[in-house]
Structure formats: C-alpha cells, structure tokens
Amino acid sequence: MFWAVAHLRKNEITTNDGLINLFWPTYEGNFFDIGSKKLEEYIQQDQYPNTLFTFALFMAETKLSHSRKAYGLLDLMGDMGGIIEVLTFGCSFFINPISEHSFILKAL
C-alpha cells in the first residue's frame, strides 16, 4: 500500500496596476498550491485490507504574499527630476501670463 501526504499552501496576490493608483489595490485574490508532498510505501495491516493507495491533504502553516506595482505617473515624475520640480514647471505655464499682465499694469 502507498501513502501520500500533501500540504496546501495559501498564496495572497495584490496588484496595483492603475496609472494613478495611490491608496487601494486594483486586484486582491488568493490561490493555493502544493507546498510539500511525500510519497512512501506503507506496510501495515489495517482495517481496509483491499486498499491500494491512501491520500491525505493538509493545510500548510506557511503563507506566501505576492505583490506587484506598475510604473505609474508619480514614479515617472519622480524619475524626471522630482515631483515638486515637475509640478512647478507645469504651473508656470498658467501663472506666467498673469504675472506678465500684472507687471505691465504696474509699469504704466
């Protein structure tokens, strides 16, 4: 008679795939895989004499966590020279005409 033991291990998945995704994940889920298995020949006279194969399945004590974060807009701005510098440069297009107009009014 053969005896097999397998341990199911829980895996947690968390993904952050959005372009602007600051606080919450886009997907959370679980799946199970076989963490360990053992097959051995087992010689014993038991109450089921015609048994050829016995299989036992247990939950493993360990758990794996997988996470993925996509390259987002804030990561891009951080690589371009810092978020504050990029926002300052972007806002200067809106503030420059107002500043120029104010200078012309004071100069007159």
Percent strand: 35-45%
Number of strands: 3
Question: Per the principal axes of the C-alpha atoms, what is the gross shape?
Answer: rod-shaped
Number of helices: 2
What's the structural domain tally?
2
Alpha-carbon distance between the termini? Answer: 103 Å
Low-confidence stretches are none
Provide the gyration radius in Å.
31 Å
Strand order of the largest sheet: 2-1-3
Query: Helix amount, in percent?
Result: 25-40%
Content-based structural category: alpha+beta
* Quaternary structure classification: single chain
User: What's the story with the biggest beta sheet?
Assistant: 3 strands, mixed
Mean pLDDT: 81
Which sequence of SSEs, written as H and E, runs from N to C?
EEEHH
Description of the structure:
By secondary structure, this protein is α+β, with helices and mostly antiparallel strands. It folds into two domains: 1-70, no CATH class; 72-108, no CATH class. The protein has helices at 73-79, 83-107; strands spanning 2-16, 27-41, 53-69. The chain has a three-stranded mixed β-sheet with strand order 2-1-3, with no helix packed on it. The model has no long low-confidence stretch (mean pLDDT 81).
Task: Quickly list its features.
3-stranded mixed beta sheet; alpha+beta; single chain; 2 helices; 108 residues; rod-shaped
Quick take:
By secondary structure, this protein is an alpha+beta fold. It has helices spanning 73-79, 83-107, and strands spanning 2-16, 27-41, 53-69.
